[in-house]
Amino acid sequence: MRARRHIRRAGRTGDAFLVATPSGGEARRQREFGLAADYSGGVRIRIEGRDLPGRRAGVEADALRLGNVHVGVQRKAEVVDRVPADAAEATWQFDVTSREVDGLLDVGGPWVHGRPGARFLYLSWGAVTDDRFDMFRRAKLLFGDIPTDLLRAAHEGAGVLVCRLALTDAQGGPLCARVRPPHIAWAVQ
Fold this sequence. Notes:
This protein has helices at residues 24-33, 59-66, 148-155, and strands at 3-10, 15-22, 41-50, 69-75, 78-84, 90-101, 104-108, 120-129, 132-142, 161-166, 177-178, 184-188. By secondary structure, the protein is mainly beta.
């Protein structure tokens, strides 16, 4: 069996975050005969956001409040558990599936986006009107930025994988793009 391998270096330790994914015909054969590895484990994740941009003074914060801007976590294509941009804090908690592939970890499920070796979570910003959410900005939290020992500990059941970050960018607006340490901190509790 041949498999394509995608490698993502994680943290400063140089440990590999690797995912093996079968190529075209091999993937079909694995599905047909039930040979594909399944996600047998799970990781509970809690994201704790502070310093939301709508709580500040100024024109940007006023526009966020008047525009009824919210931030939520993206589940597949839908943004759920939305919190107003002027809230004191925002907390999301959910489970992702996890599995070992050749001694390395992969994550999956409806909260996880991206190709193997480059998995991430989205925090999405948008204006809420009636029953609509018009997204205009997203923050990307990469699993490759999580220290490998923490991700493994959470996978092995040592506790909840906790992410802490400020949700306001340097210009006073909603945080967007890839969020990297030191602007994001991960721990297991």
